[in-house]
Design goal:
Low-confidence stretches: none
CATH class of the largest domain: Alpha Beta
Radius of gyration: 22 Å
Largest sheet: 8 strands, mixed
Oligomer: single chain
Helix content: 25-40%
Number of strands: 13
CATH superfamily of the largest domain: Spore Coat Polysaccharide Biosynthesis Protein SpsA, Chain A
Number of domains: 2
Number of helices: 12
EC number: 2.4.-.-
Distance between the termini: 52 Å
Enzyme class: transferase
Keywords: Glycosyltransferase, Transferase
CATH architecture of the largest domain: Alpha-Beta Complex
Strand order of the largest sheet: 3-2-1-4-7-6-8-5
InterPro entries: Glyco_trans_2-like, Nucleotide-diphossugar_trans
GO molecular function: hexosyltransferase activity
């Protein structure tokens, strides 16, 4: 009776004929582990299916099949359902694994039975000058290595790049696969699993090249636009606040600009109440917006008397606000949580 591989690499594929061979070659170059590749062709109209079939013919570790075009979520879930490994690794058809990715992540899971999902540091594969925002995001995710760092930064942005994850099969069985909706399915899965208590960590090593082509789905589908991220983020943040804010439902919002208010005000629809907005701009301080005062940042309550949420997302501003709060004695996760 054949022995099932330890790791299943699941790869949804759609019209990726230009990149899928490179992605598969990088998977086949993995060392020190036994694995299978489950590549699902999502009704491609280019030569993707043919390339997958040729690779499967040449290497028995690759299994592939086609489904009617239903989008990346349907293809990703189909690959997961067809997989057999005790660990499941996600891979995108336009990225590249470095040779030790699977071994290093499986070893982290082997050595830490309390951890359910692992990622790794990733190498940005785009042009840093033309895609500076994405590169900055990658650099930020690479600083979040522990469960505490991932958990406490979950409402800033997606802290574990989806193509870099590996998780235990029991996590998908207990907490569910990707969900189709008007939100980024990968971010929603991570928020859902964290809320359920799944512990996460990263290998402190660069194990993937995360490419950023102009055709990347996250750049072109409305499911991944900024507003969609904030909608799903707000749903989970509101529940987190109900469980962790000792002053619930009242919070103090750092930032009062139009964009900040647009995003923060989604919390009002979830029953959260704002004591005030806080700013450093003298033109805004003293205003009242929809009945909520805008106060000088120096007027935030002392730690223990209020819970703060920084909602300013401009580069450098979040770090400045967190430094300001911690200088006042605020503790991340206990007295404040960043959300932008």
């Amino acid at each position: 009776m054949p022995v099932s591989p330890s790791i299943s690499v699941t790869m949804p594929c759609y019209n990726c004929g230009d990149t899928v061979a490179g992605a598969l070659d990088s998977v086949l170059s993995q060392v020190g582990v036994d694995f299978e590749v489950v590549a699902v062709d999502d009704g491609s109209t280019d030569d993707t299916a043919g390339i997958l079939a040729e690779y499967a013919r040449r290497d028995s570790r690759i299994r592939t099949f086609s489904i009617e075009h239903g989008g990346v979520i349907a293809a990703a879930n189909a690959a997961i359902e067809a997989s057999v490994g005790r660990y499941i690794a996600r891979m995108d058809a336009d990225d590249e694994m470095l040779p030790h990715r699977l071994r290093a992540q499986a070893q982290l899971l082997d050595e830490n039975p309390d951890v359910g999902l692992v990622g790794c540091r990733v190498r940005f594969g785009g042009c840093r000058s033309e895609c500076a925002g994405y590169a900055y995001y990658v650099d930020w995710t690479n600083t979040l290595l522990t469960n505490e760092a991932i958990s406490l930064n979950r409402f800033v942005e997606f802290p574990v790049p989806n193509p870099s994850i590996m998780y235990r099969r029991e996590c998908i069985e207990k907490h569910g696969p990707y969900i189709d909706g008007d939100f980024p399915e990968d971010y929603e899965l991570l928020l859902r699993w964290l809320e359920a208590g799944v512990r996460m960590a990263k290998v402190d090593d660069e194990l993937m090249v995360w490419n950023d082509p102009p055709t990347r789905l996250s750049r072109n589908h409305p499911r991944y636009d900024v507003d969609a991220f904030y909608r799903i983020k707000t749903e989970y943040l509101a529940r987190w606040l109900a469980a962790n804010n000792p002053h619930h439902p009242e919070v103090h919002i750092l930032g009062s600009g139009r964009t900040t208010r647009k995003r923060a005000d989604l919390l009002l629809e979830c029953g959260v109440e704002f004591a005030a907005y806080y700013d450093v701009d003298p033109r805004k301080i003293g205003n009242v917006v929809n009945g909520i005062p805008v106060r000088n940042r120096n007027e935030i309550p002392v730690p223990g008397d209020g819970f703060c949420i920084p909602y300013v997302g401009s580069r450098g501003a979040r770090d400045d606000i967190m430094e300001f709060l911690e200088g006042r004695g605020y503790v991340l996760g206990s007295n404040y949580i960043p959300a932008a």
